[in-house]
Amino acid sequence: MKYDKKKIIITGSSGFLGRNLINYLTNRDEYYIYALSSKGKKIEESNKFNNILYLDKNVIYEEEKCKNIINNGIIINCAFPRNSSGREMADGLDYIQHLFLCAKKYLAKGIINISSQSVYSTKRKKAATEDTELCLETSYAVGKYAIELMLKSICDNTNLFFTNVRIASLIGPNFDQRIVNRFIKQAINMESITVCKSKQEFGFLDVEDAVKGIINLLEIDFSVWKEVYNLGNARGYTIEEILTCIKAVFESLKRPFPKIIIQEGKGEGTTAVEFQLLYNDTGYIPSIDLEKSVRKIIKASRNSEN
């Protein structure tokens, strides 16, 4: 590694956000990336980039290797046992605690911990700010907040800068667990789409905008980092608005669209997330609206068909 490069350590690097961060950073010559993943060694076999090294996530338990990787580096923690049992959740939290302790011991420069908007109530009336009251409605939210507390307890009264980024629900190509992607897949296959009409709004953020927000934090003086930043676009969409947008894009592409069956449902509130504090400190402004995201997802789906 060239010593004039910024050393970035990304955990959870084979996940959706991790992959997109790497796609960006490998095209920036000023960065050198250590990508940690359970699939790290396998991915490294086909790695074609000179400024990234893929490693097994458990390298942090190998003292000398861990020290060389972490010293003077910046950790972006994307690791989290998203779909897991209670035992796997416990193991994941133990792993992240060890990572943070290594960052402290081996003198990392800073830690950006990727947290989630799920720490706020889904019934909130407005897009969440950093001052919005916490409401941990799921085990996922409890785990994310526990990691925030863990990070604070380890880094307080040290020279290790840290921040938690409570990120909105991400969308983009090849992330089929999101309802936007599922609707698009159904439409491409001309399968009828049944939805329950409600006032509930979904606050989605394009993964490219998420990457941009995180990179903005990397490129400012870490001493100004706040303990928490919300990263979203301050916008929520109802199911009807999402479907209307997708249908309009299909029509503009002169593609057929399947039948939509709307049923009455319940629910209100929003999962939208603000970005004002991040803007104040970094100048971050999201630039990709839902229509642009939909077009990207459709394009990627069409490419995979060919």
CATH top-level class of the largest domain: Alpha Beta
The backbone outline, from C-alpha atoms, is globular
Q: Which regions contain 5 or more consecutive residues with pLDDT less than 50? A: none
Task: Give the strand order, joined by hyphens, for the main sheet.
Answer: 3-2-1-4-5-6-10
Order of helices and strands: EHEHEHEHEHEEHEEHEHEHH
At the fourth CATH level, what is the homologous superfamily of the largest domain?
NAD(P)-binding Rossmann-like Domain
Strand content: 15-25%
> Whole-number radius of gyration?
20 Å
Q: What structural class do the secondary elements suggest?
A: alpha/beta
CATH architecture of the largest domain: 3-Layer(aba) Sandwich
Distance between the termini: 38 Å
- Please tell me the total number of domains: 2
CATH T-level fold name of the largest domain: Rossmann fold
What helical percentage do the residues reach? 25-40%
Largest sheet: 7 strands, parallel
